[in-house]
Amino acid sequence: MLNAIENVHNKGFIHRDVKPSNFLVGRAKARNKVYITDFGLSKSHLDKDGIPVIKRSMAEFRGTVAYASLNAHKKIVIRVFTVGPFTKR
């Protein structure tokens, strides 16, 4: 599942609605593959030149409440540090 999310992210998108019902497992020869579905809330995180978009300081909740973190329910903002190629400008 993490590989599926990472592949979406590497293509320049953030899924924003990660929950069990948005993952499918392949059958027969593809039984070792996991597919991610429902890109209705997804968002591009790169601009037209491939540079990460500056995040907003505050945004309304997006996603499924049942799978949201306690911090999201309490509207607690946490700082997220990105490690990897997206920190370069």
General shape: flat
* Fourth-tier CATH superfamily name: Transferase(Phosphotransferase) domain 1
User: Strand count, sense and closure of the main sheet?
Assistant: 2 strands, antiparallel
- Helical region count? 2
Global structural class: alpha+beta
Strand content: 5-15%
CATH topology: Transferase(Phosphotransferase), domain 1
| CATH architectural label | Orthogonal Bundle
Question: How would you describe what is shown here?
Answer:
The protein has 89 residues and is an alpha+beta fold. Helices cover 16% and strands 11% of the residues. The strands form two sheets. Strands 1-4 form a two-stranded antiparallel sheet. A two-stranded antiparallel ribbon has the order 2-3. The protein starts with a helix and ends in a 15-residue tail after the last helix.
What's the topology here?
Elements: H1 2-10, E1 13-14, E2 23-25, E3 34-36, E4 43-44, H2 70-74
Antiparallel strand pairs: 1-4, 2-3
Keywords, separated by commas or semicolons:
89 residues, alpha+beta, Transferase(Phosphotransferase), domain 1, 2 helices, 11% strand
